[in-house]
Structure formats: structure tokens, C-alpha cells
Amino acid sequence: MGLRTFIESWPVYRQLTGDDPLGRGSASYSRTTKTLVPRTVTAEKVVKSICPYCAVGCGQNVYVQDGQVTQVEGDPDSPVSRGRLCPKGAATKQLVTGSGRQTRVLYRRPHGTDWEELDLDTAMDVIADRVLESRRAGWQDEVDGARTNRTLGFAHLGGATLDNEENYLIKKLFTAMGAVQIENQARI
Amino acid sequence: MPGLGTSFGRGGATTYQQDLQNSDCIVIEGSNMAECHPVGFQWVMEAKARGATVIHVDPRYTRTSALADIHVPLRAGTDIAFLGGIINHVLQNEAYFREYLVTYTNAPDVLREDYQDTEDLDGVFSGLDREGRSYTPSSWQYEGAQVQAASGQRDQQYSERLSRHSRGETTGSGGPVGGEPKPQRDETLQHPRCVFQVLTRHYARYTPEMVEQVCGIPRDLFLRVCQELEENSGRDRTSEFVYAVGWTQHTVGVQYIRAAAVLQLLLGNVGRPGGGIMALRGHASIQGSTDIPTLFNLLPGYLPMPYAHADEDLDAFVEGERADKGYWTEMRAYTVSLLKAWYGPAATPENDFCFGHLPRLTGSHSNYETIHAQLDGVCKGYFLMGENPVVGNANATLQRLGMANLDWLVVRDFSLVESATWWKESPEIESGELRTEDIGTEVFFLPAAAHTEKDGSFTNTQRMLQWHHQAVEPPGDARSDLWFLFHLGRIVREKLAGSLNPRDRAVLDLTWDYPTKGALAEPEAEAVLAEINGFDGEGRPLASYEQLEDDGSTACGCWIYCGVYADGVNQADRRKPAEEQDWIANEWGWAWPANRRILYNRASADPDGKPWSERKALVWWDDESASWTGHDIPDFDRHVSPWHRPPEDATGAEALSGVDPFVMQSDGKGWLFVPAGLTDGPLPTHYEPQDSPFDNLLYGQQRNPVRQLMPPREHNRYHPSGSAPGADVFPFALTTYRLTEHHTAGGMSRWVPYLSELQPEMFCEVSPELARLRGLEHMGWATVVTARGAIEARVLVTDRMTPMTVQGRTLHQVGLPYHWGGNGLVRGDAANELTHQSLDPNVHIMETKALSCDIRPGRRPRGAARNELVREYRVRAGITEKTGTEI
Fold first, then answer.
1. The pLDDT value given to residue B149
2. How far apart, in whole angstroms, are the C-alpha atoms of residue A96 and residue B554?
3. Which residues of A touch B293 (CB under 8 A)?
């Protein structure tokens, strides 16, 4: 590197001589900065999505690289949101990739003082046993002489953050099992 | 939902967010839209830029107020008095839209002679059973006719309807039963018993002076709101109401929304651009979870869950519940198609399409009853999927004590929310009321997949389904709820295989063969959507609910969603860019019903089918093509002309005339007065909240007489109100709310670092005057106390909270966000430690937007001393299990 090139590479020189006197733009660029490319440009794919927080229903573009979500942006195509996201929607990447998420099944045995690990398949099988047992224990063929064909042995709560397809299976399965205490956030 | 449903016919927002831009006056009340739905709020700002007046009515001054032209502070819990005042003003000044009113609403309908109003009975309606704390609504009907509600408590007339139509007539016929006697209509609106005159008398006492005394709103400010609404409604102009849970979370919540519906019908603002009522919902698919209900009292598409009447079969069910006019007449087709979707080939005409498989209700089984069933040892198992009730639901203590009495609990969530860990850490563990070692509840925590890790659709606040695609695989053991339900169902069915127990038939007969994909065996969400949409006998996707049959030849999982998979195409995944469409944008996503964006839009045209004005044109009758046409898809039979009058004996959709825009209503009209479908009265009436610092100035009746009180428990005591002894122990009004940076009970925000940093701590908002009165310091600590609990919060002293003059005395209000709990990156006491379980009787929603409380400086006591403080307050206020339970 010649002396002239060296001097001209100084940010302060560029700030004084170039078109960025406040040093907040091109004058502050290092060689590394110049080579940076937004994750949104390098992403392998952009997946169309919808914000999971409130019911405005803002469009989201989910950027994916190497099987990981690398960025979530507002979808400018959406007629509802026109590309905007609020602070929650803009934090979606942290919601889905952050360390706040639990990724393992946890189990607390009756009277236990701490969590234990449990394998998912075992958990599913035990839960199926538990729900069948509570269904049996709380079963009511009749109430006051009228046929009820139901169980009060188990209940469900939640659904407003889930997909329609998921709510559909909740209602379909639990109703078939005789449960009537099926509820979600619509009442809060 | 019944607020909108009984008034207009469908329990959903009548319009959509983008249409706010076409409004001339927007009243936001019961919502802090700028902070809670910021991106939707851009459409309010578009309207404002075009010259619209924006009015915010709220106890607090928020960013919504800051961006509004007018902020109207009101005492929490008095919205019906305020809206009733506007209704009265509109009536007294004849500012209503007469032609709209006479033709499209039930204003001219004549009521029965035995109807008695709150005017006659000092605040209650005829039919009140004081012992049973309920109304018999028969006297609210029209003279000489009986109508069925499109929503709400449709079961209430069950036995009467059955006695009118004998079973012999209905069994096996399935079709609509003969013509109903038509109600008498007086289009001069002069008949003393017509709805219009009853309405006028009912609201006569809601004067500006009364509004000032009850709500604390100065008269000139109130009159300005009346003037804005009246000047911005009519042929050329439209006004719109926007609400959220600030209206629903009351013991008279449904009637809040009804009051807005009455006003909008009077002003002729429903079904028109820039008009209607926009319901803002707080969860991504809360509209969807009501449409495809994870709710005890509904089946998909607002079909009611059957009640346990003796020997009830499909015919009796349909006959007892359906309407005789309008699209609800086809209820049998919707029900049979649902049963075919669930039970497939097992559902046959011979076995009543497996209608007997459905469990029956005997009363309310809302979540609040479920908590008490847990406390009573009846309900022993509990699934929580994406809900954190110990933070988000009223009376956190009872929520936890209920769970401590379970055999097992399954929590599916992203993080270890408080509802998963209460057995280790909770106020009851801290106080010694519960001991971890003594709690027998077995707890399973199953991590949930995020929306980026699964396919599926959300239904947003404007009834629009939008598809989200899976971007990546879920980490570790995380799975979608679709996966959980499908595989749980698969395992349960395997365990029950071969069972001869009759109760297991319903499980074994289910259609449960969804295709799966990938290493995780994830069910195909689109296959579930296809079932929801429905198909014909050959498996071809249906395009419209009008194709549904009642003979078992069609299957459809949710009739109002029929069409979302028309032509085998996922219509919820349509994403034509906004810029390539007109302002309706009906090629983005898919809205129910039938992709219509503004409901009841027949009312955007005059009785002759012409737009009321060029400026407000939406759909109109086109003579040339002899059909309805326009910008939106007509919410009306395209080929029924404005001049069509059905023959006297017509039923069903054929009974709708060319001037019946409310096609789901059993008389085709918008209901100012609700003759059927609501449990607490045909007209909105102001009652004080369950816990109120004031007496009801309007009537001798203090509270909603049929509000739902839960069985008495020590942890759910109510306050004395108004002039009752001890009420001064809780002298301040309390309201709860959300912040921009947090989401409901915090499960999706308190574990997110950005959001936690932006809103790091529980706080309370108080006025400088209240701070002086109680010695509270800005940024210091305060303890807020009710008869249920005591919490601490940082103090935010701000003139956003204004003391108001109510009934001649100064009232201070305390504002509390409710997002925090004991876990997560940022922690704090939950506001729901303070709230009680006293509910709206129609929808079983608790009253968390208007309570009374005390506030004192300093942090709350720790451990058992906290309970002692609450007990001391209860003693001082003289609270017993009877307090506040008077009818």
C-alpha cells in the first residue's frame, strides 16, 4: 500500500475530504464493512409467513440459511401491513431462535421437587394412558335422567395462538372422547 | 361474539382493517389501538390524513389518544352510560338515518304487550327470576312472531319451539318447517310498542347531565362527540367503531358491543365503506379459534353444542336451534356435513349421522367452571396449549389451586411459563399455603413448534385466513400442536382398538387418516384444511356452503370456511401483492364468508339497490346483468333484486326479501332490540361493575342482575360497592391493559431479550394527584390491594391518568399492565392476582377492565404476611361470602 493510499484509507481523511463530513456514512466504512452483505440477500430461501402475535395478521418474510431462520422481515406485499411490523413482530426471529425456548420434554412426578427428563415417545404413551383414565373416571352417561355421553374428567385450555387446523383437531379429538370442557383465550 | 352476532347475524368484525381509511369519523373505545395493534393503526392514520375525525374514549391517555383529534377520558366500566347517552342524543335530535332504519333494521317491529323495560322495573327487564338469577326471555319477542337468534343463547327457546312443532312433523323431514307468522311492522315508527319507541323511552334518561355524573365526562366534550358522529354519518359519510377487550372484559361486556351496534344501526353505518364495527383481537388466531371453536358451547361454524334434553336426536336438535328464515335455516346441512367430516362412512342416515356420538351440555362448562371443577376434584386432567392462565386469567390463586388438585397436567408452550412451574414457585408456595412435596399433580412439559416450523392458517381480526409456511424443522422435542393431537389421537385409538364399550365408538369411528410427511411424521396441515373446507361424495373440494347437503352426500368440517380450499387450491395462501390489487384486495388470503370483506354490504345501497351516495358506493344492483355487483363480493344472493318480495310461505334463504341485508338474521334485519339470543336483556343498560366505588345513578339496580358469580370461595371475595359500608376501603377504580412490547400472559415476550429490555418491569400508572394523596413516589414501589390479593409494582406518576369528577366527588384510577409473572427474563407480580371471577352471563368473560382497589406506598409483604394484609383489608371492609352477591 502506498503512502497516499494509506492516508486516503483513514476515515478521518475521508470525512474531511469526501462527501460525508459528519462521518456517519461512507467515511466510516472499513474494508470489512464494504464486504458485508445483508442476511436477507444471502438467504437460501424466503418463506412466506404471518406474524404469530396479535390478530392484525401482518405478513412476514422468513429468511432461511442452512436450515436456520436468519431473519424475519415484514412482507411489503401484504395489503394489511404493507411491510410493517411492530416491536413484537420485529422480534420474531428472537422468539423462534432465541435461547428462551425449551426444546426437551420435561417431567415432574407427583410430589416431585424438580423436573426430570423424559423421552417424547414415552411421554406421548403415558399421556394417552392418563387421558383415558381420567376420561373413564369422570364419565357421565346421564345427568338427571338425560343422556350426556360425556366426561368431566379432563379439560383443555388454549387455541387462540394456534393454527385453525390445530384447533380443528383439538375439537374433533377431544369431543369424540367425550370432553366438553374445551376452552381458549376467547374468554380472556 | 353474541354482541355482534345477535345484532347483525355473524360473530365477527363487520369490516376489515384497511377499510378504516374510508371512514369519516373513527371512535376507538375499549382499545388502545396505537399501542396494541400498531400496524393496523396505520389505517386510522390514513383516514385522519384524509380528513377523518379520530376520537379515543379511554380511562387513560395513551398513544392512541395522542394521535386522536379528541380524547374522552371516562370512568372505567361506564361505557354503556356513555354510548346510551349518544343513542339518546341521536334519537332526541332525529339524527338517525331514517330510510336505512326503517328498511334495514327492526325499528318498526312491534313488541308483545307483556314486555316491560328497565324504565318500568327500575333497571331490570320483564322475565327476571330473582331466585334463579336468570331471565325468561319470552316477553322480549315480537308480537305474534317468534324469532331465533343467529348467535348467542339459541338454546333458550328450545322447549317452546319443540312444543310448537310436534316431533311427528319434523322427524325425518329435515327440511325447513312452514312459514312463521310475520312480526307486525309499523314503518311510521309511531306504534307505542314498536322497537323504535321502546328504544327512545329506554334511553331517555341517558342525558348529557347523566353521562357527566356517571362517566365523569364533561358535557361539552360529550356533546362534541355526539356532533362528530352525527355529522359524519348519513348518505355521504360514515363513522366506524373500533373496540377490543376493553369492552369485552366486563360483567355486561356483550351489551357494551350491543350498544355500539344499536348506535351504528341508528346512524346507518353498517355494511358500508368506512362504517361498521371493527373488533380487534389480541391473538393471531383468536377469531379462528372461535370460528373453529376450542370453546365448550360451540361446534365449528357457530353450530351450538347439543344440550342434554331427554332423547334429543338430530332432528330435534335442528328443530330446536335453527332459524326459519335466512341462511341458518340450512343448519341441518351444516350439521350433517360436519358429522360426515368427523365420522366419514360411519355416519349414515340410519344412525342419525352419528349425532349421538356428540357429548351433551347441561350448563356452562367455561374455563371458570372448569377451575371450580378442578377445585372440587371432578376434573382431574388438564391440557394447556399455548395459554398461561396463572398470569393471563382472572384470579391467579384459584387457577393455581385448581391445578394443584389435578392428577396430571400437560403444558405445551415455547418456554417454562408460570402455568408449568407453579408447583415449585408461586405465591402459595411462598406463603406456605402449598408445599411442593404435598402436591400430587404429575406435570408434563412438551415444547411446542413455532409458526416458522409448521404449515397452517391463522384467521386474523378481520375474519381473513392467511397461510404460513414451514421454513425450518422444529428443534429437539419441539412439535407442532397438529403433530401432538394427531399422534395422541392415533395412540388413543390404538389403545381402544377392539373395544366394545359403546362410548369408545365415537373415538374409533373418527376419520383420522391424515397423511404425514418427513422424519417427524408431521401431519399435512393442508389435508386438514381440505377437510375443513369440505368435499362432495367423489372427494371433490366444495366451493361454497350453498353446496352443502343434509343427506350425507357432502362433508365439511366448518361450513363458514367452505370455499377456502375451492378447486383444490389453498385460497388462504393467495398472496397477490397489494399494489397489484384494488383497495378491497380480495385476492390476498381468504375471508369468511365466501371471501366477502365487508359484511352486510347490501346495506351500502338504498332500498332500490343504488349506492346511498357516489362517495360511499360499495355494491349495487346492476339492471343490465340483473345482479348485484360492485367493489366487494356481495354479501347477498346475487340474483335477488331489490324489489323481490318472497311469498308468505317461503322459508330459508328464499324467505329473504330484496331489502333484507342481514342475511343470517331470522328476519333479515339488523337488530336494535334483541328479542332472542341474549341472557341479560334485549337492550344495553348501564350497570355498575361487580366491584365499583359508585352507586348506579341510573337505576335502583346496581349490577347486572344475571351476571355470573362463581360459587363462593375464600380466594374469590367481592367488594362492597358505592354507598355500602366498607366500600371506601377500596376507593379507587382499577383497570388492566397491555403494552406494545409484551404479548398477553408473556409466554411469547418475557423470554425474548429485545422485548424484555424494552419493558423490563411491572408498573402501575397513577396521576400526580393520587401520588400525593397516597404518598407514592415516581419510580418507587406501590402495593395494590383487593380482596383477592396484593401485588407490588413500580410507580409511574403521569398526567396520562386524570382524576375525574364523578357524582360530585373526585375519582382516581389506577392502571395496571398484566403481562408479568414469576418466570422469564423480566419478572413481576401478575395483575390477575387481584382480579375476581364474576362473569358476563352470555360469554363467561371475566371483569378485569373495571374493579375497585386500594393503593399504598412501598413493596408488598413477603410470604404469609402478604395473605395477612389481604385478610386485614377484608376484615376492615366487612367482607363476607355474601358481599357483592346481591342480585
1. 76
2. 40
3. 167, 171, 182, 184, 186
Q: Which fold has domain B1-158+192-282+604-685?
A: Dimethylsulfoxide Reductase; domain 2 (3.40.228)
Q: Domain B708-876 classified CATH 2.40.40.20?
A: yes
Task: Tell me how close the Cα of B643 comes to any Cα of chain A, in angstroms.
Answer: 36
> B447 pairs with which residues across the strands?
B413
CB within 8 Å: A129 and B488:
no
Residue of B nearest to A103 (CA): B476
Which of B325-334, B454-463, B831-840, B876-885 has the least mean pLDDT?
B325-334
Interface probe with B: pick from A78, A82, A118, A188, most Cβ of B within 10 Å = A188
Q: Are the Cβ atoms of B741 and A87 closer than 8 angstroms?
A: yes
Chain B segment 587-606 residues within 8 A of A by beta carbon are 588-589
The amino acid present at B330, given as its one-letter code, is E
Q: Which residues of A touch B359 (CB under 8 A)?
A: 148-151, 175, 178-180
Q: How far is it, in rounded angstroms, from Cα B679 to Cα B841?
A: 7
pLDDT at site B326: 76
Alpha-carbon distance of B830 to B791, in angstroms, equals 7
Q: Where are the domains of chain B?
A: 1-158+192-282+604-685, 385-446, 708-876
B284 interface with A at CB cutoff 8 Å: yes
All three cell numbers of B683: 337492550
CA gap B304, B298 in Å, rounded: 5
Query: How much is the pLDDT for B168?
Result: 26
Asked if A163's CB is within 8 angstroms of B482's CB, the reply is yes
Verify whether the Cβ–Cβ distance B461 to A130 is below 8 Å: no
* Range A39-97: architecture per CATH: Single Sheet (2.20)
- The pLDDT assigned to A49 comes to 98
Residue showing cell 328464499: B654
Is A80 within 8 Å of B557 when comparing Cβ atoms? no
Strands (E), B13-130: 25-29, 53-57, 70-72, 128-129
Residue B698 CA to residue B121 CA, distance in Å, equals 12
Confidence bin at B41 (pLDDT 50/70/90)? very high
Helix (H) or strand (E) holding B241: strand B239-243
Contact across the interface for A103 and B18, Cβ inside 8 Å: no
State whether A91 and B443 contact (CB < 8 Å).
Answer: no
B125 Cβ contact partners less than 8 Å away, ≥ 6 residues apart: B115, B116, B117, B118, B135, B139, B140, B681, B682, B683
ipTM value, please give it: 0.95
pTM for this structure?
A: 0.95
Q: How many CB pairs under 8 A join A and B?
A: 499
d(CA B322, CA B747): 40
Question: Residue B797 has which C-alpha cell?
Answer: 406518576
Average pLDDT over residues B542-563: 97
pLDDT in tens, chain A (188 residues): 688 888 887 888 888 888 888 888 888 888 888 899 999 999 999 999 999 999 999 999 999 999 999 999 999 999 999 999 999 999 999 999 999 999 999 999 999 999 999 999 999 999 999 999 999 999 999 999 999 999 999 999 999 999 999 999 999 999 999 999 999 998 76
Residue of A nearest to B474 (CA): A103
Q: Domain spans of chain A?
A: 3-35, 39-97, 122-187
Expressed in angstroms, the distance from the first to the final Cα of chain A is: 68
Say what the pLDDT of residue B409 is. Answer: 98
Residue B310 is predicted with a pLDDT of 62
B46–chain A Cβ distance below 8 A for any pair: no
Cα(B36)–Cα(A88) distance, rounded to whole angstroms? 10
Q: What is the CA radius of gyration of chain B?
A: 27
Cα-flanking dihedrals φ and ψ of residue B850, to 5°?
-150, 110
Q: Are A56 and B436 in contact (CB < 8 Å)?
A: no
